[in-house]
């Protein structure tokens, strides 16, 4: 755990400072903060009311959070006509924000087998709008970036969480699989990429779908956001529905996203292997949240990410070692660890 940030007295001190700052913005009014469930990062969220209007307060310590990126990307997305939280007040130096309140209804809350087609079609319409945004100041989702994410799986899930040690040959075989995933990402056209475009980061409003948690956007592969949406780390849909929605996306928006003619098989490989890279990363992140950050709420989501990895890798012979490793070593080790608790 990061003890420096995790100390209760520091959290309380920041909350008091946030409350004082908000009071100053609202004419020294009394502000009663109600904690909200946080994200997987270091930000903390609170809801409060003032004169019958509801707001969201954010505590985002600049030591851990890129607050300027949040400000810049919010402006970029808003300018494109996409719904985002409004920045009411900002103290960038201290990492305090006051945002408009988009409510509690996420896309995830609207999804069912009967509604998913309509809901996802509404959400995926935002992807080409996002893809067209300016990428001048975004980090590149390049080989080094992708490798860094894949290493999280080895260090935190295999090593820290499951105490699995790979020998030199096994590490080499795993890296060969990682290289396939890196090559797949490198081959794709690059666009503005939200990087966490899924059902919990899309708010369902009367006037449309709003986008949140966009501060980690990068310049990355064209299929990343659509696979983040359709192969969500937190929910799994029947493959037939996923394929149908994928085909709808490509036929409706493919030509808009990519100038050149790309066949369906290429789109599908891009989609599958990009999703696989994301799930390998996510499995590692969920373990890291537990062991580094003291957040164990994401451990329950690791099995789904591993199920995605096993399923997709089974269709690609060049990923046979990754498939075998996760199916015969990682999953049994995870189940054994869970049974001990």
Which runs of at least 5 residues are low in confidence (pLDDT < 50)? 1-7
The CATH class of the largest domain, by name, is Alpha Beta
Mean pLDDT: 94
Amount of helix: 40-55%
Class inferred from helices and paired strands: alpha+beta
Number of strands: 10
Q: Which sequence of strands runs across the widest sheet?
A: 1-2-3-5-4
Distance between the termini: 20 Å
Give the name of the CATH architecture of the largest domain: Alpha-Beta Complex
> Outline, from the CA principal axes?
globular
CATH superfamily of the largest domain: Aminoglycoside phosphotransferase (APH), C-terminal lobe
Largest sheet: 5 strands, antiparallel
Number of helices, where a helix is a run of at least 4 consecutive DSSP H or I residues: 13
Describe this structure in words.
With 341 residues, the protein is an alpha+beta fold. The protein folds into two domains: 3-100, Phosphorylase Kinase, domain 1 (2-Layer Sandwich); 107-340, Aminoglycoside 3'-phosphotransferase, Chain: A, domain 2. It contains 13 helices and ten strands. It has helices at 3-6, 8-25, 67-79, 107-110, 116-124, 126-131, 143-161, 168-187, 224-230, 239-257, 264-291, 302-313, 320-340, and strands at 34-36, 44-50, 53-59, 87-91, 96-100, 139-140, 190-193, 202-205, 208-211, 218-221. The strands form three sheets. Strands 1-2-3-5-4 form a five-stranded antiparallel β-sheet, covered by helices on one side. The chain is globular. InterPro entries: Aminoglycoside_PTrfase, Kinase-like_dom_sf. This is Cell wall phosphotransferase. GO terms for molecular function: ATP binding. Residues 33-252 form the Aminoglycoside phosphotransferase domain.
């Amino acid at each position: 755990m990061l003890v420096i940030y995790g100390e209760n007295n520091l959290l309380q001190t920041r909350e008091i400072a946030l409350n004082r700052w908000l009071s100053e913005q609202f004419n020294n009014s009394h502000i009663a903060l109600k904690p909200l469930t946080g994200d997987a990062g270091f930000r903390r969220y609170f809801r409060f009311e003032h004169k019958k209007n509801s707001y969201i307060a954010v505590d985002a310590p600049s030591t851990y959070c890129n607050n300027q990126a949040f400000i810049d990307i919010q402006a970029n997305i808003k300018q494109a006509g996409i719904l985002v939280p409004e920045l009411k007040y900002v103290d960038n130096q201290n990492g305090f924000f006051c945002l408009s309140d988009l409510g509690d209804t996420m896309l995830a809350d609207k999804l069912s087998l009967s509604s998913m087609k309509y809901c996802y079609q509404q959400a995926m319409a935002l992807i080409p709008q996002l893809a067209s945004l300016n990428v001048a100041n975004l980090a590149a989702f390049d080989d080094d970036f992708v490798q860094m994410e894949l290493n999280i799986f080895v260090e935190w899930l295999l090593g820290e969480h499951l105490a699995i040690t790979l020998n030199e040959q096994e590490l080499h075989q795993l890296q060969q699989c990682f290289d396939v995933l890196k090559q797949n990402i490198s081959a794709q056209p690059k666009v503005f990429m939200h990087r966490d475009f899924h059902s919990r980061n899309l708010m369902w409003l009367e006037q449309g779908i709003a986008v949140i948690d966009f501060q980690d956007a990068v310049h990355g592969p064209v299929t990343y956001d659509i696979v983040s949406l359709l192969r969500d780390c937190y929910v799994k849909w029947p493959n037939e529905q996923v394929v149908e929605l994928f085909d709808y996306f490509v036929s409706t928006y493919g030509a808009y996203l990519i100038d050149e003619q790309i066949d369906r098989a290429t789109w599908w490989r891009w989609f599958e292997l990009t999703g696989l890279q994301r799930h390998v990363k996510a499995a590692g992140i969920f373990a890291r949240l537990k062991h580094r950050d003291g957040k164990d709420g994401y451990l329950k989501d690791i099995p789904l990410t591993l199920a995605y990895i096993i399923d997709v890798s089974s269709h690609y012979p060049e990923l046979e070692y990754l498939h075998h490793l996760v199916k015969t070593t990682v999953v049994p080790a995870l189940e054994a660890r869970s049974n001990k608790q």
